[in-house]
Amino acid sequence: MESWLFLGLILLVAFVAKNQSLLIATIAVLVLKLIPHSDKFLSLLNKQGINWGVTLISATILVPIATGDIVLKDLLNTLKSPLGWVATICGVLVAVLSSKGIGLINQSPEVTVALVFGTIMGVVFLKGVAAGPVIAAGITYCIMQVIQTVTTR
């Protein structure tokens, strides 16, 4: 019963904050929870969901390459600029940090509660997005703002 109330509260917060991603995710979990004997699937989603999400995000990032919108020349041109180098370094850092984070979750699953709460708070109240590549872009933006501030003085 407590899980229903907790998910209902998250649904309400997502609705009030007009956060479509969290709203859809919560509704999906609630619907899955309604299905008899869905414990096995929910357990599988709990264990493999992050990997599935990373795979989906990775596929999404590769689509412009598949459609020809981004070609190798674009990568080479990007690496000629500070923005390209900072973005590449941030992408590497986020990938390494993410692998350490998954290791931490596997080692100390109880930290997941705080991570979920923090993610919900950031998404709902700070208009954040729960996605690794977007984090790398955000870090890149911050570093570029610092570089731009320092070089324009």
TrEMBL record:
InterPro entries associated with the record: UPF0756_TM
Name of the protein in its database record: UPF0756 membrane protein P7H59_02235
Family: Belongs to the UPF0756 family.
Membrane topology reported for the UniProt record: Multi-pass membrane protein
Subcellular compartments: Cell membrane
Keywords carried by this UniProt record: Cell membrane, Membrane, Transmembrane, Transmembrane helix
The species this protein was found in: Enterococcus viikkiensis
HAMAP family xrefs: UPF0756
Membrane-spanning residues: 49-71, 83-105, 111-144
Pfam annotation, one family: DUF441
Record-linked PANTHER family: UPF0756 MEMBRANE PROTEIN YEAL
